[in-house]
Write a structure and sequence with these properties.
Order of helices and strands: HEHHEEHHHHHHHH
Oligomer: single chain
CATH topology of the largest domain: Four Helix Bundle (Hemerythrin (Met), subunit A)
Largest sheet: 3 strands, antiparallel
CATH architecture of the largest domain: Up-down Bundle
CATH class of the largest domain: Mainly Alpha
Strand content: under 5%
Structural class: mainly alpha
């Protein structure tokens, strides 16, 4: 029986090699070459290719082998693809794309949440923001991060737009960036204040205020990551 850890490690290695360009688009692979390159069994190589094909990173072709697909074909919203890109030399481009996506989506989601959130969701948002303040002030980054992810999940869910909700996973992936990827080890007090401004506007039913506050928050993120 194949160890799940081995399977995951090989999949990560393959995915990383593709998104980094070490295995460039147009390259043709075989199961035999993968077995040799990654020192794995044929079964592991086949299963990894099946998953990568589902992500549109590769395409199996009868008689010619397994072809690496161009970036334009990839499922760029999948958390694994995002993580591999963040771990690659293309990290800056991935952060830029995700932050621009967030700027286009989350301010409108906050606007809608201020109009559509239930009383329970407003209470949950207030609690998540309170947790961010408490764990930020006491330098507990893990707990702070969990509260931050929950904050943005509530905003997207309360928008009542199922397409916005579907974007939570890619947004969560970048929110969970480690300090080595550019996220500060401890939250900046001003950042917590920006979240509190969003929360207050949503809870007050102020759509324009919520949209403006979220735009300010994300513009600060973009500036902090030097993506402007």
């Amino acid at each position: 029986m194949v160890s799940p850890t081995l399977h995951s490690a090989v999949l990560d290695a393959l995915g990383s090699d593709i998104v980094s360009g070490d295995l460039p688009a147009g390259s043709v692979l075989t199961l035999e070459s993968l077995q040799e390159r990654y020192s794995v069994s044929r079964g592991v190589a086949r299963e990894c290719m099946r998953i990568l094909e589902s992500l549109h990173l590769v395409r199996s072709q009868r008689r010619t082998g397994i072809r690496i697909e161009p970036e334009s074909a990839w499922n760029v919203y999948d958390r694994r693809v995002i993580r591999w890109r963040l771990d690659s030399k293309h990290r800056g481009a991935q952060l830029r794309s995700l932050t621009e996506l967030r700027l286009g989506i989350e301010p409108i989601a906050a606007h809608l949440a201020s109009l559509r959130a239930t009383d329970e969701e407003r209470a949950e948002l207030r609690a998540a923001t309170g947790d961010m303040r408490r764990f930020g002030d006491t330098h507990r980054p893990g707990r702070y991060l969990s509260a931050d992810v929950e904050f943005h999940r509530i905003i997207l869910t309360a928008s009542r737009n199922e397409m916005y909700v579907a974007l939570f996973e890619p947004i969560a992936e970048v929110l969970q960036e480690s300090p080595s990827h550019g996220r500060p080890e401890y939250p900046v007090p001003e950042t917590i204040g920006y979240h509190e401004a969003v929360m207050e506007a949503v809870c007050a039913g102020d759509p324009d205020g919520a949209e403006k506050a979220m735009t300010t928050l994300l513009s600060d993120v973009r500036a902090a990551l030097k993506l402007v």
